[in-house]
Write a structure and sequence with these properties.
By secondary structure, the chain is α/β, with parallel strands linked by helices. It has 14 helices and 8 strands. The protein is 41% helix and 12% strand. The strands form 3 sheets. Strands 2-1-3-4 form a 4-stranded parallel β-sheet.
């Protein structure tokens, strides 16, 4: 019996979800998957829409035109299964992350402000390391706002991740970056979808074998949040995966400041080329 096409219309999270669903043999017997990355405005071929038997999508409003969710849903075959999936995002671990700032990857509003006021990178690093509530802001309020936004985003989704996030975000690190959920949330989402399809859960061996596609870069968390938010995993000496190497929050911040000071926007590319034994100057 030929397999049915499953279309995933989502951001980079769609690729992680696809690789997890494909770890389930029962899913593979029924579906073959094609991921379309929504934020790049990748057009979906009409023959794929016509052949779609399962459509998984992150909601896009009418401003996306023919790629809006309502437009795509209207074009699907009547017997196509369709499930909205959450667009997972959390700012609580990174309260100074600057939304919409394209001056550098993972822009930090506080560090950018220090440099704009004329502080040398070394001085900015020293002030940033000692930052408390007066500089980091209402970290509890920022986390709560992000949790509430997560709940609003997935209100219409049949599988919800926000309750798990709210329950466990302080016990374990559930996001690698603001928009890259970790294994716990992705396992929850994949197993929820498999349950809707009557296909059961992922096996323990599948979970152990699965490699997160974004696991080579974890955005470091300010060590002050260990005390301010009670995050046991945000210690000062922790090393975070950084492609070929691993850096502490201080070392990462030193790289960020050097790139920002030199006008380097592609921080991720810079970090991706660091040697395994790289350690920035003090």
């Amino acid at each position: 019996m030929p397999r049915t096409l499953c279309l995933v219309h989502a951001n980079c999270q769609g690729h992680a979800l696809r690789s997890l669903l494909e770890m389930k043999p029962a899913f593979n017997r029924l579906f073959h998957v094609r991921v379309y990355t929504n934020y790049t405005r990748e057009a979906i071929r009409q023959e794929n829409i016509s052949a779609c038997g399962l459509f998984l999508y992150q909601k896009l409003d009418g401003s996306w035109g023919e790629l809006s969710s309502d437009s795509l849903l209207a074009m699907l075959p009547k017997d196509c299964l369709r499930f909205e999936i959450p667009n997972l995002f959390f700012k609580g671990y990174w309260p100074t992350w600057a939304s919409g700032d394209k001056s550098i990857d993972f822009a930090d509003s506080l560090l950018n402000e220090f440099l704009s006021r004329g502080l040398a990178p070394g001085d900015a690093l020293r002030v940033y390391e000692r930052a408390g509530p007066a500089l980091l802001g209402d970290v509890w309020g920022i986390a709560e706002e992000s949790l509430a936004e997560a709940e609003r985003r997935e209100a219409a989704c049949p599988v919800r991740c926000a309750p798990l996030l709210r329950d466990r975000w302080r016990e374990e690190q559930l996001f690698l970056t603001v928009n890259h959920p970790g294994k716990t949330l992705l396992f929850h989402l994949a197993e929820g979808l498999l349950g809707l399809l009557g296909l059961g859960r992922l096996s323990r061996s599948a979970k152990r074998a699965w490699r997160h596609p974004d696991d080579d870069f974890w955005l470091p968390i300010h060590p002050a949040l260990k005390r301010l938010l009670g995050l046991p995993f945000a210690g000062e000496g922790r090393r975070y995966p950084m492609f070929a190497t691993a850096l502490t929050h201080r070392e990462y911040t030193s790289c960020y400041l050097a790139c920002r000071n030199e006008g380097v926007k592609d921080l991720v590319a810079f970090l991706n080329h660091l040697p395994r034994d790289f350690r920035p100057a003090a």
